[in-house]
Amino acid sequence: ACVKTLEGHGNLVLSVCYSPDGQQLASSSADRTVRLWDAETGACVRTLEGHGDFLSSVCFSADGRRVALGSYDETVRLWDAETGACVKTLEEGHSYAVKSVCYSPD
C-alpha cells in the first residue's frame, strides 16, 4: 500500500534516495531540480537548482551532509544538504549524460 505521495516536481522524477539516517528523502527530476523532503511529514524542506538539464541521479553522502547529483548536462554537482549551496561542480571527463552517482561508504 502507498504510504505517502510527495508532490512538487514539475516533470518526471528520475531518481530517489533516502538519507543514511532515514530522516530525509531526495528526489531528482527532469524539471532540473532536486527536492529534499522530510521523510516523516512529506514536506519539501529544500529545493536545489542550478543544473542545465535533467537530473538523472541523486545520492546522499555516508554522513548525510552532502548530496551528489548526476545530470544530462554532463556534470556532477555536490551540494550541502543543510544550506542548499553547491560546493563543487565536476565538469571534466563526461561527454554524455551522467546517469548514475554513488558515494563511497567511507
UniProtKB/TrEMBL annotation:
<feature type="repeat" description="WD">
    <location>
        <begin position="48"/>
        <end position="89"/>
    </location>
</feature>
<keyword id="KW-0853">WD repeat</keyword>
<keyword id="KW-0677">Repeat</keyword>
<dbReference type="InterPro" id="IPR019775">
    <property type="entry name" value="WD40_repeat_CS"/>
</dbReference>
<dbReference type="InterPro" id="IPR001680">
    <property type="entry name" value="WD40_rpt"/>
</dbReference>
<feature type="repeat" description="WD">
    <location>
        <begin position="6"/>
        <end position="47"/>
    </location>
</feature>
<dbReference type="InterPro" id="IPR015943">
    <property type="entry name" value="WD40/YVTN_repeat-like_dom_sf"/>
</dbReference>
<dbReference type="InterPro" id="IPR036322">
    <property type="entry name" value="WD40_repeat_dom_sf"/>
</dbReference>
<dbReference type="Pfam" id="PF00400">
    <property type="entry name" value="WD40"/>
</dbReference>
<protein>
    <recommendedName>
        <fullName>WD40 repeat-like protein</fullName>
    </recommendedName>
</protein>
